[in-house]
Specification:
By secondary structure, the chain is α/β, with parallel strands linked by helices. The protein contains eleven helices and nine strands. GO terms for molecular function: acyltransferase activity.
Amino acid sequence: MLRTFGRRLKTLEHWLTAQVAMALLAILRGLPPDKALNFAERIARHIGPWTGRHRVATENLRKAYPEKTEDEIEAIARDMWANMARLAVEYVFIDKLFDFDPEASQPGRVEVSGIDLFLRIRDEKKPHIMFTAHIGNFEFLPIAAATYGLDVTSLFRPPNNPFIADYIHRTRQSAMGGLVPSRAGAALQLARILESGGNVGALVDQKFRRGVRTTFFNRPCLTNPLVPKLARQYDCDVYPARCIRLPGGRYRLEIMEKLELPRDKDGAVDVTRMSQLLNDVVEEWVREHPGQWMWFHRRWEMG
C-alpha cells in the first residue's frame, strides 16, 4: 500500500509540475517570440542559481575548468540556465523560429553550414549516422535535414515527467519526423532503420550506466556505445552536427565532414576508441561555447 501511495503521489507531483509548466508556456505563447525568449532568459538567470541542479552544474564546471575563477564558473552556469530557458520556450515557437530557406536571398534567423554534406547524405543510397550534443537548440538539426529532403530518425531520451515527455514528444514529432525513445528495444529499431538504408540521429553526451570507460575533459566517465556499435555493425559513415546560438537571437546549424573512424586489426570499427572520439568532438564543441551546454547532467558519475 505504501508503494502504491508513493507512486500515486509521484504521479500527482508530475501532473502538477506539468500543469504549471504548460500554464507558463501558454502565457509566453501570447507574446512575440523574441519578447518571450528574452523574458524566459532573464527569469532563468535569477532562478537557476537557487536550484539544486545549479550546485551540480558548478561542481561539474570546477572539474572541467580547474583554472577558472568562481566568478567565471558562475557566469557560465548562468549562461547555461539562459540557454535552457530559451530551449524550453523555443518549443512553443519552433514553427516561427526555424525560417531557413535554401532559396532565400537574405539570411533569416537560421543559417546552415555544410549544405553540400546534407545533399551528399540525401543522395547516397546507404545508411548514415549523425550525432550531436545538448548544445544550443539541437532540436533544429532534424528540421534542417527535412528541409533538404533528408529523412532522419532521431533517438531521444524522454524527460522523467511523463506529462512533459508527452508534450515534448508531440511537439517534436510534428516538426521533426521519426523519433525513437531511448528505452528497451531502441537499439533494435535503429538497427532496422540502418539495415534498410535509412539515416539515424543521436545525442551522445550523456552518462550511460552500462557504458564503456572513456574520458571527458580529462576525467573518467561512462559513454553509451550504441552509436559506435551501430557504426561497427553496418560500417556506415558517421557525421558530427551541432547547433550554436549566435548574437541577436540567431542560430547556426553545422554539419561537418564524416569522421575517420578508428578500427581494430581486422578493419572493424573499434567501439571503445570511437566512443572516446565522440567525446573528444563534443568536448571541443563545449570548450568553444561552454554556456550553451547542459552542465547540470551528472556526466562524470561512474555508476
